[in-house]
Amino acid sequence: MKGKEWYQADDVAQEYDSKRFSRGGRLIDSREKRAVVDAIGPVEGENILEIACGTGRFTVMLAERGADIVGIDISDAMLSQGRAKARSAGVADHIEFLRGDAARLPFPDDHFDAVFAMRFFHLADTPTKFLTEMARVSKDLVFFDTFNRRSTRVAYNWLLPMGSHLYSRSQVDRLLDAAGVRLVGAEHDFGLPYGFYRKLPNGLAQQFRDVDTAVGETAVGDALASVSYWTTSVA
User: Pfam families from the entry (predicted)?
Assistant: First the structure.
């Protein structure tokens, strides 16, 4: 089953968080949330859009920090999980979950203070169209991540062929140019792919993560990274 079809299945939505962000996956969840917070900054009172919000991991987190946020996704099953999570956290009044197409966002130009997408562009069949739409509806900040071509992610894709797209730096640069956004910051992380961490107990995963982080801080760290976080501006 290809990535997009798999993603929209009801049973996948029900088990998505528990399978990916328990055990060693907690380290991934924590790092991704830190990447989003670092990129967007203080969010209290800000109007934010999340593309491919899934089960609302980031949507609910930002609402808890005071944001008014819209989460859009193609999967009704994922959105249902997100709504339940928002109600449980007591922030449902600050979140609107919408089913929709990220290539045709139902919002006017310059509508949001920030727009972001996590774990989306590896499944995007028309990335330029998606990023252009994200830039259109943002007043300034656009943030997203990619999986990298020259990394251990290549082996992961070979073992689990779900149609994930891996990006080179030159492809990302062309994508930014085509969408009319300017790069203002980039971080690169995870020499070991996500799937490796998810298989390990949290304590053992932390030991590998410590080594991974140490290597990432060396001169070769960026070249080995399987994930990149891109902070861009439309200004």
Answer: Methyltransf_25 (PF13649)
Backbone CA torsion sign across 93, 94, 97, 100: positive
Q: Are 114 and 143 in contact (CB under 8 A)?
A: yes
Q: DSSP class of residue 184?
A: E
Question: What whole-number distance in Å separates Cα of residue 189 and Cα of residue 228?
Answer: 6
Element containing residue 35 per DSSP (H, E): helix 25-40
If residue 138 lies in a helix (H) or strand (E), which one and from where to where? Answer: strand 138-147
Q: Give tens-digit pLDDT for 85-95.
A: 999 999 999 99
**How far apart, in whole angstroms, are the C-alpha atoms of residue 223 and residue 235?**
29
CB 215 within 8 A of CB 191: yes
- pTM > 0.85: yes
* Residue-range domains of the chain with CATH: 3-145+168-182 (3.40.50.150)
